[in-house]
Specification:
285 residues, alpha/beta, 5-stranded mixed beta sheet, binds adenosine monophosphate, binds manganese (II) ion
Length: 285
């Protein structure tokens, strides 16, 4: 299969922290020229059957997707799963367990924000939540923008909700081995999401993430994604080749108001890369 394909294999709906429904995302993706689409809600697959139906109605091919929160060497890392069986018990139960801690974490985040004078953040964030199982920092950020604490969500994540700032609550997510294992058991391919976004203390740790990921059976890395710079497209294309990983492409679109990169509006993968959809030819709906 060719690398020149408008595939968008990373985005979010109201089933996690996006603002559009699967039925709103699919025609938007199709209008932007997307030919192969995956909805990858955080730690959730509750939107998969809806997304597959909406993709079919909009004339796009579809791969099942999710983005799993993982704790690796004290960092939060995201692993995208593609092309798995959305009803597989390992995946369904593993994700349910991963979502489990979010409610208590959100209440603690709210208590910490109250200490710096931001009151009622839990109740405020809840108003933006589409799925009660999936309250995330993004919902807090929307509350803090709309209530005038910050001008935009990037200011929120600069001043709050991140390590060392008010409202940050450390959390233990899934292990790398568990996340990759669930994806593989369910017949899918595991992908390191937006590798350029992790604050690894040094290059050795980044290599350790790639090496351990491959050791667990991971097979791909996002090379072209909304938050990567042009230099990072090249850096991670090089690393994909060096580590023998397939390459993925996805906008990480969350919202028309917040996302810089719209669905499908990304450079194509370079011809020297093996596209992840080549590994998933028999899983495309
Ligand atoms: P959580 O899973 O609750 O930790 O929330 C993580 C989500 O917060 C990510 O998936 C992004 O949607 C959002 N996020 C994290 N950092 C930033 C940032 N610097 N700017 C905008 N959104 C961010
Ligand atoms: Mn998100
Ligand atoms: Mn992510
Ligand atoms: Mn994402």
């Amino acid at each position: 299969m060719q690398t020149i394909l408008n595939a968008d294999l990373h985005c979010h709906s109201v089933v996690s922290d996006g603002t559009l429904t699967p039925e709103e995302l699919a025609p938007r993706a199709a209008a932007n020229g997307v030919e192969l689409w995956a909805l990858t809600d955080h730690d959730e697959i509750g939107g998969q059957h809806r997304a597959a139906a909406a993709a079919r109605a909009a004339g796009m091919r579809y791969l099942t997707g999710t983005e799993i929160s993982v704790t690796f060497a004290d960092l939060t890392v995201h692993i995208v799963g593609l092309g798995f069986d959305p009803d597989h018990p390992a995946m369904v139960q593993g994700l349910a367990r991963t979502r489990g801690g979010r409610e208590a974490r959100a209440r603690e985040m709210s208590e910490d924000l109250a200490r710096v004078g931001i009151k009622g953040a839990y109740e405020g964030a809840l108003k933006y939540v589409g799925n009660p199982d999936l309250i995330s920092r993004t919902h807090f950020a929307r509350f803090m923008v709309d209530s005038g604490v910050c001008r935009d969500t990037s200011e929120v994540f600069r001043k709050y909700l991140t390590d060392g700032k008010p409202g940050f609550v450390p959390h233990r997510w899934a292990t790398l081995g568990d996340a990759v294992g669930w994806i593989r058991e369910a017949g899918g391919v595991a992908v390191i999401a937006h590798p350029g976004r992790y604050n690894h203390p040094n290059a050795t740790r980044e290599y350790a993430l790639f090496t351990e990921f491959i050791g667990h059976g991971g097979q791909a890395v996002e090379v072209v994604t909304g938050s990567h710079s042009a230099a990072e497209f090249v850096k991670y294309a090089d690393m994909a080749v060096e580590f023998g990983l397939a390459a993925s492409r996805g906008s990480d679109f969350h919202s028309p108001d917040e996302s810089h990169t719209d669905l499908g509006k990304l450079p194509y993968l370079e011809g020297r890369l093996t596209p992840v959809w080549e590994l998933l030819a028999d899983r495309i709906l």
